[in-house]
Amino acid sequence: MIVFRDAVVSDCVAVAALHALSWRVAYRGILAQDFLENNAEQDRLGVWRTRLTAAPPERQLVRVAVEDDQLVGFGCAFLDEDARWGALLDNLHVHPDYKGRGVGRQLMAHVAAWVIDRRPSSALHLWVFEENHPARRFYERLGGAAVERVIHPAADGREVPSVRYMWHEPSGLITSKRF
Predict the structure, then answer these.
(1) What is the sign of the dihedral through the CA atoms of 138, 175, 166 and 57?
(2) Which of 64, 92, 131, 133 is 20 to 30 Å from the Cα of 146, by its Cα?
């Protein structure tokens, strides 16, 4: 049984490891292979230490999915990230062995519920690398609309085409029969 809960400091290493694993699988051919294999986990550990060791800001959510004490997914969102696009889903990652089991959809529902609870009129948006076609299909199945394409600096130093997806009404992520 998968349990969803807010992340705690002791989740830092597991979140960073899953984040790096997810990148190695999803970003092969998008980011530099050397970075993915040799630097991604340390890079992500720095990010997650910062996010999880300080008192969590009111505008940040880090929700994890755990099964039998193993982290199988997580989502991180920030309120009020953009005046036009609303809350930002900065991270959504599911362990490759758990994809297709509804973990990502459930994490999206948790994030949407959190955003609605705190900012009822807020939209929700995220960025995805343009070449990450599986993620793009996932967000499109959940009703996300591709609304913008830009070039983003990536963690490996490259400039990568990215697409913004958004939901004007995040409530659709909660009430959808897909959950």
Answers:
(1) negative
(2) 64
